[in-house]
Amino acid sequence: MNKNKKNATDATSIFGSQWLVGNSQHPLTINVQSPKSGLRSSRFDPMKTDVVMPEMLASVVPPSETFNPSTDSLHAAMRPIIMLAQCFSMLPVCGVNKPDASYLRFTWRSPKILYTAIVILTVFVMSVGNVLRLLTTGINSVKMTTFVFYATAVVTAVMFVRLAMQWPCLALTWEKLEREFTSRHRRISKTTLATRFKIVTTVVMLFALVEHTAAVASAYISAVECAEYRGETDIVGTYFQTQFPQVFTKMSYSLWKGIMVDTINILSTFSWNFVDLFLILISIALTDQFKSLNSRLYSIRGKAMPEWWWAEARNDYNHLATLTRRVDSYISSIVLLSFATDLYFICIQLLFSFNPIRGIVRKIYFCFSFGFLLARTTAVSLYAASVHDESRLPAPILYSVAGSSYNNEVSRFLTQVTTDTISLTGMKFFSVTRSLVLTVAGTIVTYELVLVQFNSVQQVDQANITNACESYPFD
Fold first, then answer.
1. pLDDT digits over 52-97, tens only?
2. Given this model, what pLDDT does residue 451 score?
3. Sign of the C-alpha dihedral, residues 206, 207, 212, 216?
4. Do the domain assignments include residue 9?
5. Where are the transmembrane segments (predicted)?
6. 466 domain-assigned
7. Sign of CA dihedral 95, 96, 102, 105
8. Are 278 and 170 spatial neighbours (Cβ–Cβ below 8 Å)?
């Protein structure tokens, strides 16, 4: 009996957590194929120097420290971002500040939902005001752009409420996968996911704040010019009335109404930027999981691994593929909305660039706004495409497996990598891959030529002081 106990102890020390993955209540439950059976079925050439013997396996992919969901999980990384979003009525899910994802829940009876509903209602009223303005004064690119902006804000808010309903289940599933991977393998990233999330969020939100501040400054200059032209002294009132004519042509102006409408505009602006930020963060998190798997594969390149090792690697890859599809089923509509609105606003800004722009502040704002929009759209495309890129990287490793260690698990793994398309999509209309960037660029050129032809009669000389009281989306 002592001999059997010693053998079991040696096996555990050699294969580490490979023997211990399973139910936490029964830590010795074996859920993967026995390494010994895998070694018997694998063909090894004792003369080769790249053969990995059992005593070498523990050093190939050493396990991480104990997984701590309060610091190491997606839930922990997303916690400050979701709390920021909820200040602007986005993602009204409860339990965000708790230590792990099991506390997350969605309920219709919460102040967050009430706050979100009020914001959606007010933005919807703004959208209706824009529709009435289009019907009464005619349609042009300027008024249409304002309508699209507020309509997009309404749709975005509704989509994130829908996502909030599914977020607790998604976060919990993701956390269980992270716990399993961390218990068996070392984390490769030098910086935590939470740190990277904070860096990206700070950069995007800082640029968004600068853009909005420049927009307010540009609009205020227009209000000053308009007040001088009209002989008015209330510049603040002129600012609100010229910036929100869809509201103050239907009702009388007062300062509190102007502040309330401007607050709605700020919330809508945040939601427009947050859509792209959210997609970037989710893409980073998914890519990070694939990078961890690819790091393990590259660490054994040129070595002959037993069949049970390839079975585990293929099973991990399959889990990541399933997770990606699940995430895509929840956010594919948000991906489609992001690309559609970014494409529209890029075309519109290019169209307005043909108009003369008066004033150095307006020129600086226009250039910065257009550059930020292009950078944000490119970032979303490349970060989302990186999920697909990383999912294809195991193929070269699998192609280089020596014939002496090639087995059914390697063959199945290679077939899945080369035939399965793993990527985020826009409601299955398109997959976000690196080639999509060129497709979007070509689409912008095509639609821009059409817009220039159909809107040539609407080109307005903004250098004319009589047009100073007209509100422009990028004035």
1. 444 344 444 445 457 676 677 899 999 999 999 999 999 999 999 9
2. 72
3. positive
4. no
5. 113-135, 147-165, 264-286, 330-352, 364-385
6. no
7. positive
8. no
Q: Does residue 36 belong to any structural domain of this protein?
A: no
- Residue 335 covered by a domain: yes
The parent domain of residue 208 ranges over 69-180+192-456
What's residue 468's pLDDT?
57
pLDDT over 70 percentage in the chain? 80
Sorted by sequence, the CB contacts under 8 Å of residue 282 that are 6+ apart come out as 327, 331
Number of domains in the chain: 1
Confidence of residue 473 (pLDDT cuts 50, 70, 90): low
How far, in Å, are 308, 332, 337, 422, 447 from residue 429 at the CA level? 38, 9, 12, 14, 19
Tokens 């699998």, located at residue? 398
- Say if residue 16's pLDDT is above 60: no
**Residues 6+ away with beta carbon under 8 Å from 190:** none
* Helical segments of 420-468, H only: 435-454
DSSP secondary structure of 55-110: HHHHHHS---S---HHHHSHHHHHHHHHHHHHHTT----B-TTSSSGGG-B--SSS
What is the spatial distance between Cα 261 and Cα 236, in angstroms, rounded to a whole number? 13
DSSP state of 284: H
Q: Taking a C-beta distance cutoff of 8 angstroms, is the pair 363, 215 a contact? A: no
The four Cα atoms 278, 282, 285, 291 give a dihedral, to 10 degrees, of -130
* pLDDT(394) > 80: yes
- 443 within 8 A of 381, measured Cβ to Cβ: no
Contacts of 408 (CB under 8 A, 6+ apart): 307
Tokens of 380: 């979303």
Which three-class secondary structure state does DSSP give residue 51?
A: strand
pLDDT at residue 352, rounded to an integer = 81
Q: 130-138 long-range contacts, Cβ below 8 Å, gap at least 24?
A: 130/246, 132/246, 132/250, 133/245, 133/246, 133/249
